[in-house]
Model the fold of this input.
Amino acid sequence: MLARDRDAVAEALNLVEDRRVDKRAAALRLLDTLEREAPFPGAARIGITGPPGAGKSSLLDALVRHLRPRGETLAIVAVDPSSPTSGGALLGDRIRVRAAAADPGVFLRSMAARDRLGGLSEATRAAVVILGAAFDRVFVETVGVGQSEVEAAALVDTLVYVANPGTGDWLQFMKAGVLESPDVFVVNKADLGIAARTTAGELAAGVGLGDAADAALATGWQRPVILVSAREGTGIDALVAAFDAHRSTLAAVGELALRRQRSRESWVLDGLERRYGSHGLERCGGRDVLRARLAERGSASSFALLAELGREIEDALRKPE
Amino acid sequence: MTAPRAAKPDRPWVFRTYSGHSSAKASNALYRTNLAKGQTGLSVAFDLPTQTGYDADHPLARGEVGKVGVPIGHVDDMTALFDALPLDRMNTSMTINATASWLLALYIAVAERQAVDAKLLQGTTQNDIIKEYLSRGTYIFPPQASMRLISDMVAYSVDAIPKWNPINVCSYHLQEAGATPVQEIAYALATAVAVLDAVKARPEVAPEAIPRIVGRISFFLNAGIRFVEEVCKVRAMAELWDGLARERYGVADETLRRFRYGVQVNSLGLTEAQPENNLIRIVLEALGVTLSKNARCRALQLPAWNEALGLPRPWDQQWSLRIQQVLAYETDLLEYADLFDGSHVVEARTAELVAASRAELERVLEIGGVVAAVESAYMKQRLVESHTARTQAIESGEQIVVGVNRYTEAEPSPLLAGGQSFLEVDASAEREQIERLQAFRTRRSQPEVTAALQNLKDVLANGGNVMPPSVRAAQAGVTTGEWADALRALFGEYRAPTGVAARRTASAAPRMRELQERVAAVSKILGRPLKILIGKPGLDGHSNGAEQIAVKARDAGMEVVYEGIRLTPEEIVQSARDEGVHVIGLSILSGSHGTLVVDVLERLRRAGLPNLPVIVGGIIPEDDAARLRQAGVKRVYTPKDFDLTRIMGEIVDVVAESSPGV
Done:
């Protein structure tokens, strides 16, 4: 993986999606090694989220066309929802990210959200770790339907929210508190003119306020609103500059390492809660106690911790209350 | 009481046959023979590289040159295509869209070589790029740029080639994509509105030219087997078009408001099983667009009875031409006034279609018109839904298709006896075309070509009309690929939404339940959900079948990586590996399956994936299917395989057979 062998990357991704017992053990060993041994900070991890139709995939296509000539290698994990009735999924992103089609420097993997309603595939974090070892930059694309922004934030260093001009969707998301997680806001379709500029103005007024903005400012980051046109390729350079500025701002105050650590904790806790419920967590002292324990184990991989604490909860659940 | 007869019999519509293959020379010979047999107009079929703007030696053109039509790479090819066919006496329909302005420029250049005044040129460029996004798939540029090219041609032709129909707004392909009559009417009219609004908004177009421009808009319709409804459909369209022309564009002259349309009758309903029945279907479908005098087509082209088997031979096309001749010259059809005026039934059904189509048209206009409805996938989703409903009705037996899901017991057809019952394109056609192209490149004047291309780019970048610099480029010896590359550099390339992703179907049929359980069981053994890649290699853009398979696979519980159209074998193999799929499904209708599928198989072997199973669907003759299976393809499906649930079950079998431990 570290040698950037494409076949090995694809096989590793197959392995971490595999639910068979022996494969899971092998996957755990691989991920544990990768997460512990990967150089910090490694690949930039960027989440792209937003409502359906905002042009996330077209934006990715424009980013690939912008970044590839700089010699950067890129990986994309595109997560699409699964059908609640059949469990099947249509993963159609490759059509929109045409720039990735036959470029050996771009790797695109589609994943279905599987049994998680509106959420991310459980294997997405594993994919980010694997792809982060083999490529310079990893993008995670998810459809924003509420909870997934928070989940996406736990996977990446920089979360980008892509708004659709003129639809007022962002207002709904603001009400739902979802606009608290993103670090960068993009208004796509700037070629629509006034509608895009209006949305950008409203959004700029909104994202500068509130606790999330204050928290960002405490680390020296002012969350920008960037107008781009994926169709015409305008504003992409400003967006890439914002990615890099965000990362160096975080790194300068030591926030990047802290953020990765918090993300690891959240991911493990969410995984435990998904498998064993809040009742399961309570049997081992509850979320806060477990988070404190995770914080003490800074050197272990999130995958090893999830397995280890999982076993502990299973044991606790077997005992009479 | 005497029946209202016409004073003298009507002139028949123009008889055409959609044809062209191999090379300009071979196609020219075919056209001359067809005209000698009594065909009255030409209908040029171009090959896919010409339609999508690639030279014959481009990697994407591989296997496609001369397959579904004639390859036209430059002005000498176009000259050879019309050798000894004086253009002032031809009525030429060109099925060309993304590169329509280029092929029209070549046609004008040939007229000049023949010393024919451009003002005398008669014919049609299809030039409806909107439906390419919805159905046919031979688009190149984004919708806004496409609308600009269309309106450039309309604005140019109204004075420069006033007898030319610069656009044939197509509802034909919408029906092939599964459209209901209401969708067909509404989306075609919405396209016409978008074109006329765009032309009207151009500063150089004088308001007094608008009625003449409206009068040059023609349509290209489909005629399906429900021919009574089709009679009502064309009457409804005529009524709606008259209203739009009058109210929206203020056309006072009644003759300029006439609904002028050509027809190719339905291919979707032609069957591979008992193919002789298709001739009967074609006759009935022809009636739908000829019976009503007030809404009769201006030109008609009929498919051949064996179209679902492979490329028709000259005899097969002749048989279809004879249908038109018998109908026009032997029957008394052309002697009477309109047969349906005063029919309560026809008038009531027409009124229903008018009302429903007007409502759907309003909906599209509310979304922001056809361009917005393409970009948001609104129309595409409606079409995929209708098509899914149709395939489900056939699968369940609710919709009867004789010889397919009913009355399948049949005598062996003598028409199929004696080997080859369709045309095979000479395998050397591609090589010879490339040789001609390369020879042409060496004999043209390179400075003139460079200057003409620069002029094209400059004019386009400054917002000028595409036609004059394209005519100059044609005369200078620019090739089809060079012309399209210049526009690609300016406009970019586009991929249309597929319309499959948003649809949610919950099929409760017991067979689907069983299938879902099997997919779940096999997925469990595989360790992760069964993942399938579905895509179309080559330049063929007819994605309706692939989309139906993708939707069905999703409903069966598979994870479907839908790759869409225009893929190289290299891209397919790369994404199969990166995505970790368990099976690849390829769809090809252009006849280039031999080259492309074998290439995919070879590349899979080289990529270390020799056991990754490949299945293929398309118009594939049995001999070719046998060859593909021999080469390693696990299953081959053709139009006779209508039972998608069964196909899905077999895909699960194929995966199970190919995966160790299952």
Summary: Chain B touches chain A at residues 142, 376, 492-493, 495, 498, 500-502, 504, 506, 516, 519-520, 524, 527-529, 550-551, 553-564, 567-568, 570-571, 574-575, 577-580, 607-608 (CB under 8 Å).
